[in-house]
Amino acid sequence: MKLTLEIWRQAGPNTEGHFETVQVPDAVEQMSILELLDHVNEGMIEAGKEPFAFASDCREGICGTCGLNVNGRPHGADKNKPACQQRMYNYKDGETLKIEPLRSAAFPVIKDMIVDRSALDRVMQQGGYVSVDAGTAPDADTLHMNHQTAELALDHAACIGCGACVAACPNGAAHLFTGAKLVHLSLMPMGKDERGKRARQMVDQVETTFGPCSLYGECADVCPAGIPLTAVAAINKERARAFFSAKDN
């Protein structure tokens, strides 16, 4: 399988970047995007050239580290899959692939395809915690929670924070990410004490750093965790609840 790759090359955050063309005559359909880049880098190293920098960790689709754009789409051609699970059989022999970092003003490029996604961490720092009693672990049935609520909380807790939703949004919004965290924590019994404070602080942070939600749904289309678009509604719902509630929670 022959491919032409146009791979983004940028030495640092304060330098201009450019695409570098690489010919790959022996790609395999079962390769993932990351394995393709591994293969390219092996050839670069053998030729005495600097390999392309990109981020990865578990390569099992659960850590959210491997964020990049392929032909302008976060992660790759397949819907709701991270880059490490995107396979070359989605592309044709002789095709040209443009591989670049996740594009967002909130994600400055560190080097090549590695971006700084700490803006998402700052959102979590504003309210991604719960109050718990220190001491020995409580019994499993101490806090009662029905099965349906627990499943809904887990569905939203599945967000891996990859940032694909931000890169897919034409406005660079992080409402799907933030909404998923707000839904998850609002449903958990041990998160009630911070609910109002969490909503105010997290929403303020996301609106300060990221763009407004476009409501087109591009974010849900690329989310590897399958977070539903309805999570976006939690932004206004939780903020309104905090505003009208007499208590902080």
From TrEMBL:
<dbReference type="GO" id="GO:0051537">
    <property type="term" value="F:2 iron, 2 sulfur cluster binding"/>
</dbReference>
<comment type="similarity">
    <text>Belongs to the succinate dehydrogenase/fumarate reductase iron-sulfur protein family.</text>
</comment>
<feature type="domain" description="4Fe-4S ferredoxin-type">
    <location>
        <begin position="150"/>
        <end position="179"/>
    </location>
</feature>
<dbReference type="GO" id="GO:0051538">
    <property type="term" value="F:3 iron, 4 sulfur cluster binding"/>
</dbReference>
<dbReference type="GO" id="GO:0006099">
    <property type="term" value="P:tricarboxylic acid cycle"/>
</dbReference>
<keyword id="KW-0411">Iron-sulfur</keyword>
<dbReference type="InterPro" id="IPR009051">
    <property type="entry name" value="Helical_ferredxn"/>
</dbReference>
<dbReference type="GO" id="GO:0008177">
    <property type="term" value="F:succinate dehydrogenase (quinone) activity"/>
</dbReference>
<dbReference type="InterPro" id="IPR001041">
    <property type="entry name" value="2Fe-2S_ferredoxin-type"/>
</dbReference>
<dbReference type="InterPro" id="IPR012675">
    <property type="entry name" value="Beta-grasp_dom_sf"/>
</dbReference>
<dbReference type="GO" id="GO:0022904">
    <property type="term" value="P:respiratory electron transport chain"/>
</dbReference>
<dbReference type="GO" id="GO:0046872">
    <property type="term" value="F:metal ion binding"/>
</dbReference>
<dbReference type="Pfam" id="PF13085">
    <property type="entry name" value="Fer2_3"/>
</dbReference>
<keyword id="KW-0001">2Fe-2S</keyword>
<dbReference type="InterPro" id="IPR006058">
    <property type="entry name" value="2Fe2S_fd_BS"/>
</dbReference>
<dbReference type="InterPro" id="IPR050573">
    <property type="entry name" value="SDH/FRD_Iron-Sulfur"/>
</dbReference>
<dbReference type="GO" id="GO:0009055">
    <property type="term" value="F:electron transfer activity"/>
</dbReference>
<dbReference type="InterPro" id="IPR036010">
    <property type="entry name" value="2Fe-2S_ferredoxin-like_sf"/>
</dbReference>
<dbReference type="InterPro" id="IPR017896">
    <property type="entry name" value="4Fe4S_Fe-S-bd"/>
</dbReference>
<dbReference type="InterPro" id="IPR017900">
    <property type="entry name" value="4Fe4S_Fe_S_CS"/>
</dbReference>
<dbReference type="InterPro" id="IPR025192">
    <property type="entry name" value="Succ_DH/fum_Rdtase_N"/>
</dbReference>
<feature type="domain" description="2Fe-2S ferredoxin-type">
    <location>
        <begin position="1"/>
        <end position="103"/>
    </location>
</feature>
<keyword id="KW-0004">4Fe-4S</keyword>
<dbReference type="InterPro" id="IPR004489">
    <property type="entry name" value="Succ_DH/fum_Rdtase_Fe-S"/>
</dbReference>
<keyword id="KW-0560">Oxidoreductase</keyword>
<protein>
    <recommendedName>
        <fullName>Succinate dehydrogenase iron-sulfur subunit</fullName>
        <ecNumber>1.3.5.1</ecNumber>
    </recommendedName>
</protein>
<dbReference type="Pfam" id="PF12838">
    <property type="entry name" value="Fer4_7"/>
</dbReference>
<dbReference type="GO" id="GO:0051539">
    <property type="term" value="F:4 iron, 4 sulfur cluster binding"/>
</dbReference>
<keyword id="KW-0479">Metal-binding</keyword>
<keyword id="KW-0816">Tricarboxylic acid cycle</keyword>
<keyword id="KW-0408">Iron</keyword>
<keyword id="KW-0003">3Fe-4S</keyword>
